[in-house]
Design brief:
The structure holds two protein chains of two kinds. By secondary structure, chain A is an all-alpha fold. Chain A has one domain (6-93). Chain A has seven helices and one strand. The longest helix of chain A is centred in the C-terminal third of the chain and has 15 residues, at 82-96. Chain A starts with a strand and ends with a helix. By secondary structure, chain B is an alpha/beta fold. Chain B has four domains: 6-135, Rossmann fold; 145-254 and 416-487, 3-Layer(bba) Sandwich (FAD/NAD(P)-binding domain), CATH 3.50.50.60; 264-413, FAD/NAD(P)-binding domain (3-Layer(bba) Sandwich); 494-552, Alpha-Beta Plaits (2-Layer Sandwich). In chain B, strands 10-7-6-14-27 form a five-stranded parallel β-sheet, covered by helices on one side. In chain B, a hairpin with a 5-residue loop joins strand 23 (385-392) and strand 24. In chain B, helix 5 (111-131) runs antiparallel to helix 15 (556-567), helix 6 (153-164) packs parallel to helix 12 and helix 9 runs parallel beside helix 10 (355-363). Chain B is elongated, with a radius of gyration of 31 Å. Chain B starts with 5 loop residues before the first strand and ends in an 8-residue tail after the last helix. Classes of the chains: A mainly alpha, B alpha/beta. Chains A and B meet through strand 1 and helix 3 of A and helix 10, strand 21 and strand 24 of B. Strand 1 of chain A pairs parallel with strand 24 of chain B.
Chain lengths: 100, 575
């Protein structure tokens, strides 16, 4: 169960130009991901938008497994800057959970 | 009938027919039948060469009628009627027998049976032509005025279009103001044009047009007559009855916004509104820094789509609501960017260029959550605060809860409550309660009643853009008809055999078009047909206990002789 928290998205947006909301959930990115991690990257963005920090935390490995190869980004029909968004999420993680 | 001379032409249709039907065999079998002077086959009857040859045969042999056994009458009936006319025949002394769609194409596996069926249909066709009477289309003069019912955007546009053609228009609106569904709306998609200003501009043009009479607070109470010559009574606002003579009627009675039942979706409780109510709230607070509901600043709005659409009660899609809701959310994003907006949808139908609105909402931060009709969102309350629960199809059915300050039920359109008008006009209503066109693609604004057209949301939910288009199409059809000065109607109408009729009135009751009335003529009660109203639909024929009614072109004698020809040689099965 996810209790929607609009604040999380606003929080993440402070770290850069996070444009995951352009995503219309077509799944092209997930199909193309060479890491084959099912959660990459569509669902991660969705958890960010819905504001589930808990779900995001569960996806930590996936977020750091991303090769930033941009296969998904080059093929995204909505122009979501996927690799940039992943970087923003990593920055957020680093500050929020690892306190670096 | 024995002195009649007719010609029978059987078509190969290249091989479309002759590959599966023994065309030459049929020709031989009908040659020499009583009345058949000529029997020939053609490779392509519709070709110019074949038509010229048939014309010369008709003239040389002085034929009284012809039968062409070929394709469906839908394809070439008009072609061959015109040919018969060129040959000097009455077009109604021509019968088309369909041995392609109904024989060769339907029975490719069995040549013998296909041939047998075709031969019998041809024999029946011969009887039809032998019994055919020379008929003329019924011509009615058109009265140079049009009645437009409903003064929403569709009715007003139709009235103005007709007025500009120089046709007098009577525009009747049951409410006290014009404008219908958009009269209070501010921003209309796709351009953001102000609905109130649009209505005002149309209203001013109507007021300035010398040939449009506008009746507000008025309603239609009676309609008599038929295409070209309707006589309509309306009751105007001061209670008086006004009689109008018009050649055509355009029905643009619109639709109404669906209102959920009290209690359903939490409707009626604070914070739960319909799309229309949300727009009213925005209008009243557009000057303020914050949007407030019940004194509390709104931070989260949740939209639930398809409320009153695509469910058991309303099986249709209301077309405009997805775009209208997204357009509304864009207005909110612009005016109050701090508000988070969640859209719970089944399918987003922002078709065509309306897709731009959807993209804009996505880029401004609207979040779309897809639900299944099997698991509709639920609204619970924590204190007075609504919490919407939904299973999100886009994150493998994750259960999501959205605390919301405002829940907007994106409601569709319902047909206007028009039962009385429908009964008066006798135009058909579809299973959803909207008025039906004859054909959705080929005759989209005409009804089965000649001279009555439909436009706008009376026909089904439409965007304001689509309403205008259909209203102008209706105006063009009505205008063309009026300006021609007269209308031609197929002569296949009912006729009364007065010596048999005893005026019992069963036919008057069953006629769905109100075309039959019982009158007193030289001391005898008798049924009288209004030919302009009659559709030749035939309900009156079997109900008559005296066989006193028949459809012209399908007379009792014609039909009996055709049936005899079809079953000739079979054992009597009447026992």
């Amino acid at each position: 169960m996810i209790r929607v928290n609009p604040q999380l998205k606003k929080e993440i947006e402070r770290y850069g130009d996070f444009n995951a909301n352009q995503c219309f959930s077509c799944g092209t990115c997930t199909a193309l991901c060479p890491m084959g991690l099912k959660i990459l990257p569509r669902e991660i963005f969705r958890f960010s938008l819905l504001g589930s920090e808990e779900k995001l935390k569960e996806a930590e490995d996936a977020i750091y497994s991303c090769l930033l190869c941009r296969m998904c980004e080059a093929n995204c029909p909505q122009g979501v800057k996927i690799s940039e968004n992943i970087r923003i999420l990593r920055t957020y993680f680093t500050e929020r959970f690892f306190k670096i | 009938m024995s002195e009649q001379k007719i010609g029978v032409f059987i078509c190969h249709c290249g091989g479309n027919i002759s590959d599966y039907v023994d065309v030459e065999g049929i020709r031989e079998s009908v040659e020499g039948l009583p009345g058949v002077r000529v029997a020939k086959t053609n490779m392509f009857s519709c070709s110019d060469a074949a038509q010229e040859e048939m014309i010369s045969i008709i003239k040389k042999e002085r034929l009284d009628g012809i039968v062409i056994a070929s394709c469906s009458p839908k394809l070439h009936q008009n072609t061959f009627r015109a040919m018969a006319k060129r040959a000097g025949l009455n077009p109604y002394k021509y019968t088309q027998v369909n041995i392609r769609e109904q024989c060769s194409w339907a029975h490719t596996h069995n040549r013998e049976e296909a041939t047998r069926k075709a031969a019998r249909l041809v024999r029946a066709g011969i009887q039809k032509t032998l019994h055919a009477r020379a008929l003329e289309p019924i011509v009615t003069k058109t009265h140079p005025a049009v009645l437009v019912i409903g003064a929403g955007i569709a009715g007003m546009k139709a009235a103005i279009s007709l007025s500009r053609m120089g046709i007098n228009v009577h525009l009747v609106e049951r409410e006290k103001e014009v404008g219908g569904l958009i009269k209070k709306r501010e921003s209309l998609f796709p351009t953001g044009q102000d609905g109130r200003e649009t209505v005002k501009a149309l209203y001013e043009e109507i007021r300035a047009s010398h040939n449009i009479a506008l009746y507000l607070g008025a309603k239609v109470i009676e309609k008599r007559g038929s295409v070209g010559d309707f006589s309509v009574d309306i009751r105007v606002s001061n209670g008086e009855t006004v009689n109008l003579s018009v050649g055509a009627i355009i029905v643009a009675t619109g639709a109404i916004a669906y209102r959920p039942k009290e209690g359903a979706w939490g409707y009626g409780r604070p914070g739960i509104v319909t799309l229309k109510e949300l727009l009213d709230i925005i209008s009243s607070q557009r000057e303020f820094r914050h949007l407030r509901v019940n004194g509390k600043e709104v931070e989260t709005i949740t939209y639930i789509y398809c409320v009153g659409s695509r469910d058991k009660e309303h099986t249709y899609c209301s077309r405009y609501c997805c775009t209208a809701a997204i357009h509304t959310s864009n207005l909110i994003h612009e005016k109050w960017p701090g508000i988070s907006q969640f859209h719970l949808f089944r399918d987003i139908r922002t078709y065509g260029s309306y897709e731009e609105e959807y993209k804009r909402a996505l880029s401004r931060g609207s979040i779309f959550i897809r639900f299944s009709p099997k698991a509709m969102p639920e609204i619970e309350f924590e204190g007075e605060r609504p919490v919407v629960k939904v299973s999100d199809l886009l994150t493998s059915k994750e259960e999501i809860e959205i605390e919301s300050d405002l829940v907007c039920l994106v409601t569709g359109l319902e047909p206007s409550p028009n039962r009385e008008l429908t009964d008066i006009l006798k135009i058909p209503v579809g299973k959803e309660g909207f008025y039906n066109e004859i054909h959705p693609k080929l005759r989209p604004v005409e009804t089965v009643v000649d001279g009555i057209f439909i436009g706008g949301c009376a026909q089904g939910p439409k965007t304001s853009q689509e309403s205008t288009i259909s209203a102008m199409a209706a105006a063009a059809k009505a205008g063309a008809m009026i300006l021609t000065g007269s209308v031609k109607i197929e002569p296949f109408v009912a006729e009364v055999l007065s010596e048999r009729c005893d005026g019992c009135g069963l036919c008057e009751d069953i006629c769905p078009y109100g075309a039959i009335s019982i009158r007193e003529e030289s001391g005898k009660k008798i049924a009288v047909i209004n030919e302009a109203l009659c559709k030749g639909e035939g309900a009156c024929v079997p109900i008559c206990p005296k066989e006193a009614l028949q459809i012209r072109g399908y007379e009792h004698e014609t039909m009996r002789s055709m049936i005899d020809a079809l079953i000739e040689g079979y054992e009597d099965v009447s026992d």
